[in-house]
């Protein structure tokens, strides 16, 4: 049994998440307030004891650990030779956009989606092309008619897929992924699949790697994965890129090497190997704890703040909430923070018709979750009055 109720004081640690006012409670950016798995801490300590932190290489053991993890956890074993080290998913996506597009081309995204995708596209001179997800009866689905129309535009050369999808927490099934793959193949569009949240599915739920669905999906895909979300080690800058097609892999390899995001720091490799080889039991207990947090939040809101609708979710520790029943000005998160100190993410930055949504991170001890819900209730009460 692992202990996830421990409160770790993260203030004054140069934490992006916790560099806030002393009375504020941050439940916004996607990192967890849990200490990482003991096996990862042990691996870092062992590396530290060596005392020399020079340049590092990527040993074959790392490729084996990544491939073994995906085989055991997700039923898909990528060829070890198709796996490339990178310092992060977003650096990889940005490098791939630079390498695989020319200025003014379209990069398709399915909004609402992780806001930094917009940066990776716009900062590289391309245009984000939104295939807006359809929101009906509190659930999301893909508008395939619109998707095909936008993929068929000769200016659309790249698609960034998010699976599981951040912020809505949806796991795309095999049929959906196959349909996306076939459309992209038809219109000569390469798919970058961001699967960084894949290990944080609800208990009993599993995700489907895009590259595992068919030969078509495998040949046109660049899959970005990492232990950083699941094991809360984003600050160690460690990720993997899986590119089965040899020619496409060469381009991606050149892209990340040109941008100098292909070399590990002194801890990135050992931490990842420890997580993938020894972290399964810890992760399974973590998933149950996070799921319980999500259930608590959902029940609390249903009973106390029925004007808020929590969308259905199968993965991630992020909860996507429709607050249009309370506020239709798009600034609910701003007013909530000012009134109660509860810091959540506003929906507008994720694109689509998301102004009246908020995203809350519940990857924290239950005590923190309860405090967050208390503040949310207080904020709503003030708004009602």
Report on this structure.
This protein has helices at residues 38-50, 60-74, 89-100, 116-122, 144-151, 174-186, 215-219, 246-258, 268-278, 280-304, 332-340, 366-384, and strands at 25-26, 83-86, 106-109, 127-130, 134-136, 139-141, 156-162, 190-194, 221-225, 239-242, 309-310, 318-322, 342-343, 345-346, 357-361. Helix 4 (116-122) links the parallel strand 3 and strand 4 (127-130). It has a seven-stranded mixed beta sheet with strand order 2-10-9-8-7-3-4, sandwiched between helices. The chain is 39% helix and 15% strand. Helix 10 (280-304) packs parallel to helix 12. The mean pLDDT is 97. It starts with 24 loop residues before the first strand and ends with a helix. The protein is of the alpha/beta class.
Key phrases:
385 residues, Aspartate Aminotransferase, domain 1, 39% helix, alpha/beta, 4-stranded antiparallel sheet, 15% strand, 2 domains, Aspartate Aminotransferase, domain 2, 7-stranded mixed sheet
